[in-house]
């Protein structure tokens, strides 16, 4: 899986309430809240890992973290630098091989929530982490590629996508389908034989999009404090549908911010230690 | 029985121009010293195979060792892009790099098939993705649908990986060449068992391999060469021996971004260093081990 590639820039929310919290902190808290205690969760490095560990430190102490390196039930007290970080192997319930994690654990649908980032997403939640440009052979930008994402998107019981929202990343049509969301619309996942339910939430630096139950189209269901529907529409490359019951999402609470900043401070302090 | 030799000898005896080489280690125990030795011996036209090319293949691609790459995730883990890999794909520098691209699940299953001695593996995967239509290195589809002969279900087949050479790094070996590694063990066992020839670099050679929770043991007779290379996974992790040198991974972003700077790094930190020396590769980054 990939890091979401977001920088610690000021979002409209942060601009409205200067210095209270960053857009990344808002996104991370929002993603953490989407993880019910006890859920089994497939996480990648970057914002997903921060969110999952924030959830463990706050409302979900029994969250089961699985990293694609084969560590099951990892309980790191700092954020791992990569999926091979020793702290994951040392704190997990079991360490299994890479073939085993994909074949025995992910493929049969044993994992509740998969976290994905992306460079591009379309209105049916299909994501691209492969190439930007017209053709695969001569890409404008070569991205890292698939990693575990295609099968995470296919086989986790549900998927949460976390990414920065811009007109360049939220596009009418992704340049390459690395991982399938709802394909070309209702019924497509079933036709393809994908066993999981697909993306249930897309958490961005502006708010939250969820698939419409009838059309599968990503619909704005929540915004962060200080963010307007127009702000989100302006950063969406398709005609964005808005839920009739649009929610204003709570800002990060003091305990959430304290726990998250503590995790990040411990992690920064241990970087490069050998 | 594995023969215990120097790293330079192990590489010289096993890896030849044009070979398909899998140097595995899933962000942990990456055989970096062996990668630099391949660069020093100026191997060319290699087909490099690795789930996560990581900085090790970024170095080898930039140095001109590879003409083909089979992989599933080509980023600098936790940092960003692999600039030498991108420069090769986007601008054919220092030469064109032909890709065969998979998902992690696909690659893992291909290694399992190789180790198992069967021609392909079956998985639920790739369905509906753009990867399904991509050609393999031979121009034919590398990912194909298959119907289950028992249920009629449509699944996906991927071809076995049978590298000419597998290279891995392990925590230790004994004097008979039995190899032991633990922590995140990735696909190293499958890579070695699917390959024609194998090289294992180790942190240390010991008299007796004591028990370790979750350890993988490769008996001496399944391995061709063992070389003692302390720090041979630097800057990646070697659980129980060293942590990741994250400063190097971050510094690599700068070193590799610019061709001239990368070439200076090659001169000072690869060609300017004796084979088998641990911890090479940090001078240019200004953050010595």
Descriptive keywords:
heterodimer; A: 274 residues; alpha/beta; Glutaconate Coenzyme A-transferase; 10-stranded mixed sheet; 28% helix; disordered N terminus; B: 289 residues; 3-stranded antiparallel sheet; 8 helices; 15 strands; globular; disordered C terminus
- Do you know the CATH architecture of chain A? 3-Layer(aba) Sandwich
**Which chains share the greatest interface?**
A-B, 58 and 61 residues
> The CATH topology of chain A is what?
Glutaconate Coenzyme A-transferase
User: How would you write the strand order of the largest sheet of chain A?
Assistant: 4-3-2-1-5-10-11-12-13-14
N-to-C CA distance of chain A: 25 Å
Q: Which structural class do you get from the secondary structure elements of chain A?
A: alpha/beta
Count of the domains of chain B: 2
Q: Unreliable stretches of chain A, pLDDT < 50, 5 or more residues? A: 1-11, 13-17
Give the % helix of chain A.
25-40%
Quaternary structure of the protein: heterodimer
What string gives the helices and strands of chain B in order?
Answer: EHEHEHEEEHEHEEEEEHEEEHH
Provide the gyration radius of chain A in Å: 18 Å
Strand elements of chain A, count:
14
Largest beta-sheet details of chain B: 10 strands, mixed
The CATH superfamily name of chain A is Glutaconate Coenzyme A-transferase
Provide the CATH superfamily of the largest domain in chain B: Glutaconate Coenzyme A-transferase
